[in-house]
Amino acid sequence: MNVVKIAIIGAGFSGLGAAIKLRQQGIDDFVILDRGDTFGGTWRDNTYPGAACDVPSHLYSYSFAPNPTWSRSFSQQPEIHRYINKVADQHGVGSKTRWNTEVTGIVWDEADGRWIITTSAGEYRAATVIAGVGPLCEPKLPDIKGIGDFAGEIFHSAQWNSDYALEGKRVAVIGTGASAIQIIPELAKKVGRLDVYQRTAPWVLPRADRPYSSTENWAFKNIPGFQKAARAGIYASHELVSFGLTHAPNVLAPAKVIGRQNIARGISDPKLRAKVTPNWKVGCKRILLSNTYYPALGQANVDLITDPIREVTSTGIITADGVARDVDAIVVATGFHVTDSPTFEHIIGKDGRSMAQVWEATGMNAYKGTTVHGFPNLFLMVGPSTGLGHTSMVYMIESQLNYLVDYLTLQRKYDIARVEVRSDVQHDYNVGIQKNLESSVWETGGCASWYKDAFGNITTLWPGFTFNYRRITRKFDLAAYDTSSAAAIGARNSTQTVTSQPATETVTS
């Protein structure tokens, strides 16, 4: 058995950031557990052709680890993966990581006041767990009749089989989301025939991507404040979009015009244009960026199919109109388990219920996207209501890390051994979140999306400006929590509650 003060689950942006902040706080009694073999998380695992970020490079990186040598304004997967591992090397946290270690269970032991973590490499016990698994870690396969009977090659976009040669093959792509629109142009260049199965047409806007010149990279590296100013400018421009998404969807009308122009530029066939034109408001689903997606759909070897899939056979796909199309390979680009992630089934709280069971009854929610009542000493990274539709998640991650660091400071000051958010505080916080989302495009935009849970609540997205989230996570508000000192837990006969001034902050957009 391995006993540590803090266990970090996951080695992506969240887990690595947490490890770096712990080191900076002088805390060395921690371990990172990850099922992979390098840092990177989703940027390690998603190696499909064309994989890239939809957020500009200078914003999609740690503010405390700027990279002046980004090759492009929008980085591709290999470069982001290299960046993350370089940052890890610079901060010397590789030695704290246990690679190829699959976490199979995280169970709270109330008597011991610790989490019992079962893994493929043995058991760990930790006073505190930082769950940096992320919402895009468990691929979601479509529920289609016969999909298990397909005799050809089939794989999810997040589990790309680079050993399978697609050149000249008949290939089907199921889905037209963020990953699919990056994959499709790359496949169209080399496959014999490409069938694209679209359930709902996305809004795809132009991608302002270009290489950085050597002069620009020199300036980013050598002119004081230049890169910081560039990052601030990118951040400010993206924040303007959040007002339209949350409060005034009609403000995004110009984006609809730009999207239609992007279709017109990329596709000449009127019938195909009609197929790819969405019938819902911009922003209701994730806004996608591409300059190559629409031209790829117009290629002679590509067919966009909008009839629903009836079933998959051993040789191909049959649509609702009865047409059968044989293929050699199927690429499934249908996203991830977000509101129903299997990860939640393996986190067992103080009353013996899993997080999945708790959320099955109440809906997926947390306090500030970070702590959940019933799960003491557990800090979620990129938890409920922290997702974004307009800017960088790294900004939100760093906000959560501020919250975590302030807690660790208070923990030492007050000798806190157990911390648990109050249920009333968590409830009121999430009522505020939903109220702020009532007028959002995700509620009024006329689409169905994975942003909502089974209760119809938008539990994945933050409402409004991200600087408001930064504001409410700047300090750890002890008044929102029940806390016990190490001495009190050791005595087993009393509970010493630490209190502070009542929290006055509210969720504003």
Summarize the structure in words.
The chain is α/β, with parallel strands linked by helices and 509 residues long. 31% of the residues lie in helices and 18% in strands. The protein has two domains: 2-138 and 337-491, 3-Layer(bba) Sandwich (FAD/NAD(P)-binding domain); 147-210 and 220-332, FAD/NAD(P)-binding domain, CATH 3.50.50. The protein has 15 helices and 20 strands. Strands 1, 2, 3, 4, 5, 6, 17 and 18 form an eight-stranded mixed β-sheet that branches. Strands 7-16-8-9-12 form a five-stranded parallel β-sheet, with helices on one face. Strand 14 and strand 15 (324-326) form a beta hairpin.
Low-confidence stretches: 493-504
What is the makeup of the main sheet? 8 strands, mixed
Strands, count: 20
Oligomer: single chain
Indicate the structural class: alpha/beta
Distance between the termini: 46 Å
- State which percent range the strand residues make up: 15-25%
As a percent range, the share of helical residues equals 25-40%
The number of helical elements comes to: 15
Shape: globular
Count up the domains: 2
